[in-house]
Amino acid sequence: MKMKQVMALAATLTMAFSITACGSSSKNAEEPTSSNTNTETTAPAADNKDQTTSTDELKPEDGASLVVWESKEERAFTDEIAKQFTEKYNVPVKVEEVAAPDQVTKLTQDGPSGLAADVVMFPHDNLGKAVEAGLLLPNDVFGEETKKNNTEASVQGVTIDGTLYGYPRAAETYALFYNKSLVPDAPKTFDEVYDISKKLVDKSKKKYGIMWEVGNMYFNYPFVATGGGYIFGDNGTNKDDIGVNNEGALTGFKTYVKLKDVLPVKSGDINPDIKRGLFTTGDVAMDITGPWELANYKTALGDKLGLAPIPSMDGKPAISFSGIKAFYVNSFTKYPDAAQLYANFASSKDAQLLLNTKVGSIPTNLEALQTDQIKNDPYLSAFAEQTKNSQPMPTIPQIGNMWDPMGAALAEIWDNNKDPKATLDNAAKQIQDLNNGAGK
Predict the structure, then answer these.
(1) How would CATH label the architecture of 175-321+396-435?
(2) How far apart are CA 97 and CA 89, in angstroms?
(3) Contact (Cβ atoms closer than 8 angstroms) between residue 388 and residue 318
(4) Which of 113, 134, 364, 436 has the fewest CB within 10 Å, making it most exposed?
(5) Please, are residues 212 and 289 in contact by the beta-carbon 8 Å criterion?
(6) What residue spans define the domains of the chain?
């Protein structure tokens, strides 16, 4: 273990220098910035009857306590599962809010000094960077159990070069939420979205037909990919083949540019909190977002909430990004046994069903997917349909070089009416330069 940590420390320091020099971080699937909000579950009075009794099974270290990072949107689940874990294993768990896309960067900075969480959770596109920096322990103790219990796609998403690192807990893509009071039937095409929104938009009253995070590449991948664009070639593994500016992508951006007419809002003025507030009050009729909003939207709209796959473009089904959210164990944790137990416990069938109940996430556990809770849910079926036309985010470390250039390009096209071809050509060059180490 000590040798692993020494090697990981060296790799992490290299990565930390790289991140500082480049000044970039992955800003993909979600959402708000980190906060210092945290809660802690306190271990009950010493009573080991609920602890594992088999000498063949892993046990938490004496005196173990854990810190777990979780996103704001999914705190309701983690607070509950942490309480259950403490009751079973007599290990206190503190939950700290850190946005999922920010966790690898924060782990890179805080891991070697012992200030990071013992268990982290992030989308699979950040895995390559974390592994390259030596930040994670492999999922070996529970590896076979994880592979047997979860979908093949989710296991592949948390595996790098044949080594399993993650404990999958949810599969995610995004879809079209709509308010049936304003849009009785889900639009099938973006041309229909445009026509509906043209009738509903009233900027002076902050009322809009459609809203999504127009400056966030994660949600705008359909405009790149539906016509044949891509991030990296060879199924996301070839860093030298960049397709964000090919003819297919430029075709999709014609739709993106057209939609500016019905959403006259600057990209920087659309964030998850603003969008959520407008949709739940009926001031936005349609919202493209992910399952983490499902619980809130169901509470706000009740049976007026509709959910459908993303509308098609130019006669082609819209291609979204998909991702696997999973737990990972910090390689610098003082309590690796307890941390592995937690990651496995919090990604079990029952845990994934709890996560679905609390925030609407789609399980990766095979048995959970077959329960009535999931199979009979009309909302999850819409996400499942969109998943059929989704592409997984690349896991190679260079994916981190894409987010900032593409975010800047989207802002230039949306806010400043810049030519999509020239702007995307420039973004592709920036990505290539970063891939080749320019400026590092």
Answers:
(1) 3-Layer(aba) Sandwich (3.40)
(2) 23
(3) no
(4) 113
(5) yes
(6) 2-172+322-392, 175-321+396-435
Q: In this structure, what token pair is assigned to residue 427?
A: 């973004």
pLDDT tens across 55-73, in order? 358 999 999 999 999 999 8
Is 47 exposed, middle or buried (CB count within 10 Å of its CB: 0-12, 13-18, 19+)? exposed
Q: CA 161, CA 76: separation in Å to the nearest integer? A: 34
- Among the listed residues 307, 314, 204, the one whose alpha carbon sits nearest the alpha carbon of residue 258: 314
Q: Which two tokens stand for residue 375?
A: 């199979």
Give the β-pairing of 320-330 and 390-392.
parallel
Structure tokens at 241: 């083949």
Question: What pLDDT, on a 0 to 100 scale, did the predictor assign at position 35?
Answer: 39
Q: How many angstroms separate the CA atoms of 393 and 235, rounded?
A: 9
Cβ contact 228:249 at 8 Å:
yes
Residues 159, 339 contacting (CB under 8 angstroms): no
Q: How far is CA 425 from CA 221, 247, 434, in A?
A: 16, 11, 14
Asked if 415 and 266 touch (Cβ cutoff 8 Å), the reply is yes
User: Is 190 in contact with 251 (CB distance < 8 Å)?
Assistant: no
CA gap 318, 47 in Å, rounded: 54
The conformation of residue 363, written as its DSSP 8-state character, comes to P
The answer to whether residues 141 and 58 touch, using CB atoms and an 8 Å cutoff, is yes
Closest alpha carbon to 107 in 82, 79, 126, 125? 126
pLDDT digits (tens, 9 = 90+) for 283-336: 999 999 998 899 899 999 999 999 999 999 999 999 999 899 999 999 999 999
CA angle 75, 166, 271 (to 5 degrees): 40
Closest CA to 120 of 196, 78, 69: 69
| Residue pair 41/93 in contact by the 8 Å Cβ criterion | yes
Same topology, domains 2-172+322-392 and 175-321+396-435? Answer is yes
| Residue 337 CB neighbour total at 10 angstroms | 16
Q: What is the CATH number of domain 2-172+322-392?
A: 3.40.190.10
**Residue 64 structure tokens:** 């173990």
Phi and psi (nearest 5°) for 244? -75, -10
pLDDT score at 29: 40
